[in-house]
Amino acid sequence: MISVYFCPMIINVDQAKLFEIIEQVFLGMDCSIEHARIASHSLISADLRGIDSHGVARLSGYVRLWEAKRINARPNIRVVHETPSTAVVDGDSGLGLVVAPFAMEVAIQKAEQVGTGWVSVRHSNHFGIAASHAMMALKKDMIGIVMTNASALVAPTFSKERMLGTNPICVAIPAGNESPFVADMATTTAANGKLEILQRKGTPAPSGWIQDSHGDSTLDAHALKNGGALLPLGGDREHGSHKGYALGSIVDIFSGVLSGANFGPWVPPFPSYVPMPENQPGLGLGHFLGAMRIDAFRSAEDFKRDMDLWIRRFKSAEPITEDQPVIIPGEPETETHAFRMQNGIPLLEVVWNDIMQTAEKFKIKL
Amino acid sequence: MISVYFCPMIINVDQAKLFEIIEQVFLGMDCSIEHARIASHSLISADLRGIDSHGVARLSGYVRLWEAKRINARPNIRVVHETPSTAVVDGDSGLGLVVAPFAMEVAIQKAEQVGTGWVSVRHSNHFGIAASHAMMALKKDMIGIVMTNASALVAPTFSKERMLGTNPICVAIPAGNESPFVADMATTTAANGKLEILQRKGTPAPSGWIQDSHGDSTLDAHALKNGGALLPLGGDREHGSHKGYALGSIVDIFSGVLSGANFGPWVPPFPSYVPMPENQPGLGLGHFLGAMRIDAFRSAEDFKRDMDLWIRRFKSAEPITEDQPVIIPGEPETETHAFRMQNGIPLLEVVWNDIMQTAEKFKIKL
Asked: Which site from A1, B37, B305, B312 is most exposed, i.e. has the minimal number of CB atoms within 10 Å?
């Protein structure tokens, strides 16, 4: 049995045990042992890093996509086009949690050979958190870059209509003695997961996060369900929303148009009950992944020495208030990862129950 | 003489004539004919695209940097390290306006050979607008990516201190029948040039653009001169400034740390009267440039057909108000470029006088 303790609504689960349960679920979906292991690793890395919205809380969502035959548990993931530094990978409708690590391996191999590797992916599905894949590059002394498009929730500047996903960008950069620099961000003011937290709490959203069905700024955290939209980073034109819109567009084009996947409003949705967009121009959803070998530019030793200097200088920048120093991107997630590896992953009771029900569906003994 | 007409404070100058004057100034600085031509092209492309803050208005600033011996008019720009898909270029303290096109040519040549090319540049200076260099890739059916670090004007989230430049990112993507997608943006809420316009007008800045010397949000457009700072895209933590800070940091690391240039608060300033930062860890300022051959991923024909579809679909997104359709990044600049090529470049009288004085310094006959 599992060692758990009860706070109000929180169940703490050992990460190794949680991994085992998830792996069994993916095996129950008829994934190969290797794919079940990779997918579980991708998924649980979100919980370990504290990105609870993208981790095991989504397990049953992936299962429902498989039940709706939108995910192929036995995909033939393959390179369909390549040059020495590039490739297009077709995910064969497999789990993005498996397709993205495959593509990142291709990028890393190409970087080993010619300095950098760049892979655009079509015919994939949701891949969890971008950081999980980008960080594969770190142990090879490479910079990892990962982005993905997603179904349309975001209105471009001046648009009433949702045209883009939250389209995250992750860049992972190795350091020497310091922890790596890992920026992983939606190209919106706030990720959808943060809005969902406000919805559960019943509190209003800050201005600049969402607009209502008329395109007017609103504080109603539920506006998205009523024809509203998330806003690009910047919030409105005066505060640079055209830049967030441009960033989300770049992610969409690199992931969708460059690979032959869907793009813009045609990207497949994550919830299995949402109908597929009509007249899709491509295959599945798209990712874009890159790896750059540090020593393709300068010695890894020199680079990491300077990265340590960069990180220490930024951490010691004069803070506005003494109790809140400047944070290096990825620093809180690295700390959460270390803590949760030791102390287990705290899950909301509702998430834990959902996992239990999913496990039951596959008759997994706990 | 030059064909000019006078609006209040505006002088309209034919672009070919303006090019000639600028070229003469660079020749007066002892640039080679080739470098003078390239630098003039880089500089005037900003005015042609309507980015007046980064064009000929800065000509006298470059001259002053040369007078202060911070710019080398006869640089030995060279590749100092390379792999099939990467290079580090040393700009030998040359004009960024010349160094960046050199580096972009290297990136394009590598992309021709192995699919993509990525060049990190050290020992350079200000390079004008990023779009000018990124768009070199378009005519080769390549995607161009250009970024640069710059002297510290921007405070990271939670910082009182200025640590980053406005660090722009440009991505230029070819289309078929439609105009190319060209996003060129500072990673701040607003570029410094926009703030300068408010300063001249004496109007307050919108919230979220700047903070004062205590790190408090302010509407005072002059706060930057009094120890304040520009804010990263997002404005404050609640609106995602940690994302703008992360983007500016990525630009700084790719441009500065990867090449061996300066980074963070050590990047050399543009105004020649501002002292150089002490204990600089690198050489000059840094850029990062990339070129990706479209057909290293899929046929350029298929890609451009889908880009046309992408552009048309986004332009036809349901607008909030009928009189303001959704804009494709680069669309206004493409229109301005076409108009100014035909109708001349409108310059503020103060800018025109500054160019005249600079020309006089080199005894250029007009």
From this structure: A1
